[in-house]
Design a protein that fits this description.
Layout (H helix, E strand, L loop, with lengths): L1 H19 L19 E4 L1 H7 L3 H13 L4 E7 L2 E6 L1 H14 L9 E5 L14 H17 L2 E8 L4 H13 L2 H6 L1 H18 L2 H15 L2 H25 L5 E4 H6 L1 H10 L4 E3 L2 E4 L8 E4 L7 H16 L3 E7 L3 H14 L7 E6 L2 E2 L15 H19 L6 H18 L7 E2 L2 H4 L7 H15 L11 H4 L2 H11 L1 H10 L4 H20 L7 H25 L8
Parallel strand pairs: 4-5, 4-10, 5-6, 10-11, 12-13
Antiparallel strand pairs: 1-3, 2-3, 7-8, 8-9
Helix pairs in contact: 4-20, 5-21, 6-8, 6-9, 12-13, 15-16, 18-22, 18-23, 20-22, 20-23, 21-22, 22-23
Amino acid sequence: MLDELKVKIQDYLNNKIETEMNVPVVLSIETPKDKTKGDIAVPSFQLSKVLHKSPMEIAPTLRTYLEELPYFEKVECVGPYVNAFYDRKKLAKLVLDEAYNGRNNDKVLGTVAIDYSSPNIAKNFSIGHLRSTILGQSLGNIYEYLGYNVIRINHLGDFGTQFGKLIYAYLNWGDEKKVMEDPINELVSLYVKFHEEAEKDPKLDDEARKIFNELEEGNKKYRTLWETFKNASLKEFKRIYDLLGVTFDEYSSEANASRDSKRVLDLLDKKGLLEIDDGATIIRIGDDIPPAIVKRSDGATLYITRDLEEIHRRYEKYHFDKMLYCVGNEQKLYFTQLKRVLSKMDAPFKDAVKHVNFGLILTDGKKMSTRHGNAIKLNDVLNESIRLAKEHIEEKNKDLENKDDIAKAVGVSAIIFNDLKNYHENDYEFNLEDATRFEGQTGPYLQYTSVRIGSILKQAEFDRTNISLDLLIQDNFFEIIKKLDEFDQIIQKSADEYSPNYLAKYLLNLASMFNSFYSKEKCLCEDVLERNTKLYLIYLIKSRLDLGMKLLGMSVVEKM
């Protein structure tokens, strides 16, 4: 609300200046770093240049304009600046009412489709898959909160040359009994073995490509193996998704897109975009970027062919306004190519596609890789995080009931928050012990703060209609009110920049403000008016913390 108010004030000033001074100047409104200098400050330097007067001469006129508005208790000139102090009582009441009543989302703002997680079948769900999965889930939550219809899509990596490699490895070195007993781990071992052997004999890569081509053409033997690998993988993936609280509206498939890709190839051909280059079918998309290869010389389709088919299908089904792809930084060139092709096709959704790229999760400064056998299983990480959370809980509250359930909620949330607090485009070093601490910039710290507020609120009732506005205008109260007011602005910024880390940082700041406030103020005091005011304020802090954690995909717990 205060952010919107700032825009209103700025618009009012600029209209007033244009009308009364007859100059089209756009003044900026600043927020003084020194809070004693006011809530907002209007510098007169820009207007001074246009009017050829000193800033000190102009400032009193700007002060007069601001004094006409009903938002301020005091407006004063300080040299070239006009500093204004809000009417805190009026604004505090408005902010608290808005925070209590919540958003009104009667109108659907549009449809946002999000492609996230998208693991490859026949591989363990490693910690490397974590970023796409929870980034997409949290963005979906945020857009739903803002009033969008969200379509959550998991586009499985169930096709490609890697399956030729896997089938070759299974047929040559696989043990059916072992694969049936422990399908994912055995298949990963076979995949790693293929790459070890291919380094000695590069011809194995050609054999794998041949197998994949036959798979794509419908070879029954290979198809049966591929279905077995896929079903075993999905069972494992869904178990992980249930643990993370991640959901999807649709599971789509590269294999299905491959079978239907003739349609998009025909469409590209009709538009005159295809040409043959050294046997491969390509689309030239500019001198500054390599051409997009949509069919290899052996007739096999590629990722971009299948993605072009899939995005057309999605648009026909959902008529999305945005199509977000949560995929790593290493695919920047690929998505530039995809968007260039859509532009050349003049697709109606060509400007709707956004690559939400993200960095790597590193261990000891190194990237993890399945083919080299050093990927860390996400299931192992989650279980260890739950174990550490339980240790911390037993240290603090060994008689707590339902410890296992709470440890699960805290441990999983710790992993989610530890990732989302980082800016998505950056790499970060993973440290499990740091992520599960109950103090510092962690998920458990937020959950513990929420629990702490909840335990205070259980000790006394309060009447939110009987509070002291005189108390709320004091600095330590009003700073919290301003922070509460920032919530929707932060959510919007998180959506606009596809960056839940803004929300994560906001929650840490809000939790820190509560803990500082509580160390100085006695909330369960004798005076009824004072107690009502303090309890109402911390109630709203908790409601913002809890909602923010849910939007990130974390669990809210009542006890820890």
